[in-house]
Amino acid sequence: LEAAFGLIGNEKGLTVRIEEICAAAHVSRGTFYNYFTSLEQLFQVLAVELSQDLNRALVGSWDETQSHAEGSNAAVQHYLNYARRDPAWAWAMVHLSAFGPTFGAEAWEACHRAIAKGIDAGEFDVPNATVGRDLMTGAVLATVRTMLRSGRDGSRPQAVAYHVLRALGVPAARAREIAERRLPDIILSK
To answer: How many CB atoms lie within 10 A of CB 98?
Structure first.
């Protein structure tokens, strides 16, 4: 996993092959297949490993008084801020998203559940949770790519969060007020 991360955590990491991972990890191809059935399976496991700590921190920061719009704002901005601080992580997540759910299955499913709850609560006005999840994760992934390619002066997380909330149907004044609030602190274990 460390060898794979080292290879995909840069701009050219999308084209990594099993042979390159085995060479970087100093293991044979047979040893690779003792643990993984395919490159895609390795990437699925790596996506969980790379996103699990951030996902736990976001869930741990959830305040019961928060609305679903506030929680979604925090998730969008924290993901973008984390990507800005750790470009290797950001590149890895961009490349891993090409092989499976954006930001890993855990984040993908959590986003879907949060959007569904926001729809049920009347906060979001999108046809269904899948459309809302795709709006949110697609915007975040595209922004991460923009930030990586343009440097630190790319899109502001607050502006992206505001527009994601607007796309989900949150009224402009409420979306602006939420996006401009101080984010809840998150505690990462790593």
So the answer is: 11
Q: What pLDDT band is residue 171 in, cutting at 50, 70 and 90?
A: very high
Other beta carbons less than 10 A from residue 24's beta carbon: 15
Q: Which amino acid is at 155?
A: S
Average pLDDT over residues 117-126: 96
pLDDT at 158: 94
Q: Please check whether residue 168 is in contact with residue 115, taking contact to mean a CB–CB distance below 8 angstroms.
A: yes
Q: Give how far Cα 116 sits from Cα of 48, 55, 96, 175, Å.
A: 22, 18, 25, 18
Q: In this structure, what DSSP letter does residue 183 have?
A: P
Beta strand residue intervals within the chain, DSSP E? none
Tell me the chain's radius of gyration from C-alpha atoms.
Answer: 17
Confidence of residue 169 (pLDDT cuts 50, 70, 90): very high
Pairwise CA distance, residues 3 & 1, whole Å? 5
Residue 13: how many CB atoms within 10 A of its CB?
19
- Give the pLDDT of residue 154: 57
Euclidean distance between CA atoms 122 and 127, whole angstroms = 12
Q: What is the mean pLDDT of residues 88-107?
A: 84
